[in-house]
Amino acid sequence: MIGLVIGRQDLLIIKRGFTFKSIDGINKLGFIPDVELSPLSAAIMLRIAELLNERITPPLNNVRLSEYTEDCNIGSFICMGLKMLRYGDADLDKLRDSINSIPLPTIEPVSTMVGIILSIETGLPIEVYSDIWPMLVDVLAEVKGLGRDVVVHSNVFDINRVYVFDYVIRRFIRIPRIDDVYRHEEGGDDTVELIDKSFRRDTRAFSKYSTAAPARFIEPPKGLVHLLKVLIGELNGVTTLKSLTDILSRDGFGLGDIMSAVDNGYVTYNPMDLTVRVTPAGLAMARHLGIITSTGDANAQG
After folding, report:
1. DSSP three-state, residue 187
2. What is the pTM of this model?
3. What are the structural domains, with CATH classification, of the chain?
4. What is the model's pLDDT at position 30?
């Protein structure tokens, strides 16, 4: 699963693996794991170099990242960035169940390149910073096809290229509309009109779900029960992914519970406006759980 987080570098999404962020309470590795470069990693390095019109030495198969860096063309900005990094041997088995901070700067294209290589070669989840991701949708699709868990943090948003991601978390900010500058009649100052919302909407459901109740009721996960209570009882069945994640996190639940509900058809996620909406199947489940009554009213005690 791969995700995109826009303008929220304060969010730590992964629960194990590597992150470029230095956060109190997590293991600080102090170096970049010195992995061997497979043919796929070598191809990705050349793909990024070609994208930026840089010439680098083609990596040899099974050469370590530190070994390649030593012989890399110093005239290339990519090679200069790689030489800035500190590499070391890492025991991946010991790091597999913990969150580990690695000193990977948010400088492109090294941040994207090294982050994707670590994801491919270690198989561990990783948070990577990338502002060139819109030009590497094919690479992200390959990483997704390998079953890797990657969270891309960025300050760049391209609505036409987000479909490769399984989820998107975006910071909502006030954006100046520079085409609607007007003057105050009294003060005469140039003022910029500010927009509070995005009006891009697509209310069509992406999938159809049956409203029929299951033949045999199975006790649902606690995360699903709590999600439906919040989404239906408090938020009238629809809200933004960010708002729902924040509310669920107060009670020990989070994004994983939302994605599980999406996969099982109880809610839908619309990447066009980043909203989560309950489905007919979710309403049917809520009736079984007593969250809403047979008349459709939310149970206040649920």
Report:
1. coil
2. 0.58
3. 2-170 (no CATH), 205-302 (1.10.10)
4. 87
